[in-house]
Amino acid sequence: MHIFLLVLVFSGFSCSNAIEDPEFFEITVDRDHPEKVYEAFEQFKIRYQRKYKDAAETQRRMQNFIKSYNTIGILNLKSNESGYTSTFGINKFSDLSSKEFQQRLSNIAPSQKSRSTMKKASPFLKRHKRQVDELPDSVDLRYEKVNGRYIVGNIVKDQGSCACCWGFAVTAVAEAVYAANVGPFTYLSEQELCDCATPGSLGCTGGDLVWGTEYIMGRGLAASSTYKWDEHRANQSGMCVSEENKRVLVEDKFDYYFADRYNAEEEIMAMLVQWKSPVAASFAVGNRFRSYSDGVLVEQDCDLKGPSFHAGAIIGYGSERDYFGRIQKYWIVRNSWGPYDWGNEDGYFKVIRGRDWCGIESIGAVGGRIADHTHA
């Protein structure tokens, strides 16, 4: 491995421009084969069907790609040296600038204050302490059936360019609770949450899990087949048409509970096992998550004070040994970036469990149950 400057050769682009451009930087490749990065870029364009409008845009995208290419190489090297199973690779975000990728994330920091209005899972779980102590070593709700019905859909949805991850995460919880207690399994409308559940802001700029849970408790939710997803719709206000769509979830039929941040690991596990509920969770995002391929994410490069937040649905847990023989406990999390264009886990990812990776256990983790208060 050698470090050298890769000079991009496009019309109107000089070496001096490259050095001054903040998007231009050194990349790590084999000095004897610098064409590898060009070949990788060509393969990327074919794989993701990229057609840029002119040479100037091609130049910009190539620079972004080089940055991703370099970052991925460094991340894989560090992970390998540490003995971790996590790997990183080129994906559909690899030609985006940092600003463009940021626009696909929530710029609204989850509010701890807002959680004061939500019910806590602790009282219910503590009354069932014996069951909590006997939790199985691993769970994966993708393969669980309740009353003969699967409770997690086999389609990993794609939020596209809209930062409504929070809506997708909450909807995954609602779908599972509905299938487990009412049925049959029905895909529910993230679009309704994105259009209607945001207090004074646009759903595609980000949101809070509390917004989605409180909306469903008070208004119910339509099916995604009738209130369909459009990644551009919630970029403008006044788009809510909930009254025009039949309720699948009826208001006041479901309860949502936040895990206690100080006992989050145990409570999230208990909600998965006892309630058969996925757990929607917010977390901060860094380069490792952006370029994730597979394995267990362990190292953190996120900023909990920054503007880059995302949400997913925890649907299981387990453990495995890393390459140094250490046991790594992990969460299995459902993402909303589609099944094929990010990662190699069919739209899911694994992240270290019990260490509050990028705030995934403490920022806000919410599960759901049927609103049968005789069990509360």
TrEMBL record:
GO aspect biological process, one term: proteolysis involved in protein catabolic process
Signal peptide positions on this chain: 1-18
GO MF terms, alphabetically ordered: cysteine-type endopeptidase activity
Keywords: Signal
Domain Cathepsin propeptide inhibitor, chain residue ranges per copy: 41-101
GO CC terms in record: extracellular space; lysosome
InterPro entries linked to this entry: Papain-like_cys_pep_sf (IPR038765), Peptidase_C1A (IPR013128), Peptidase_C1A_C (IPR000668), Peptidase_C1A_papain-like (IPR039417), Prot_inhib_I29 (IPR013201)
Peptidase C1A papain C-terminal domain: residues covered: 135-369
Family: Belongs to the peptidase C1 family.
UniProt-listed PANTHER family: CYSTEINE PROTEASE FAMILY C1-RELATED (PTHR12411)
Protein name (record): Protein CBG12922
Source organism (scientific name): Caenorhabditis briggsae
